[in-house]
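Batch manifest, entry 17 of 40.
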Amino acid sequence: MSKEFWNESFSKDAYVYGKQANTFVVERTEQLKEAKHIGCFAEGEGRNAVHLAKQGHQVTVFDQSEEGLAKAEQLAEEEGVHIETVQGDLTKKEMDAGQFDAAVMVFGHVPKENQSFLIEQMIQSVKLGGYVLFEVYSEDQLTYGTGGPKDKHMLYSPEDVLYWIRDYKCLHFYYGEADRTEGERHTGVGHVIQTLIRV
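Output type: structure tokens
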């Protein structure tokens, strides 16, 4: 979906996906405790980044939407923490290698032809021994209708994800249902893919 789409979505006063961090991120926060600097990819309005900053991490936020990043900075200010924001198209942006101790992405949906690049850049951005954590909607989400893109071309397959992470230590992989009630766009039980790897 285009930068214009997201700028329009995030231009509302309300936080489209709420202000609370994603459940999977919260559940795995303890495993990221040693990560001094975390990159949050396709982070939108900043709910996960702010949660991690409140745990004491240095956080850099990447998103294509200026409106989303402005709201992320606003949320950080409300919560009394600091985050760094970087605007850019993550389907094209090459990341500096080894700049983070961990990378996190929640529902960063891009077209099929760009998905492997996005995941590879997230992995590349993390130091050896660091972590990459993400949760996305699977292709099965289309039958649930509780959030995410309405186009299979923008959803993820477990086979692809397992292929992308094949060279790394997989600490957690889940393909199945999860209840995600996050703001107005995620409204109940859906079908997700969760991954946590050590690089």
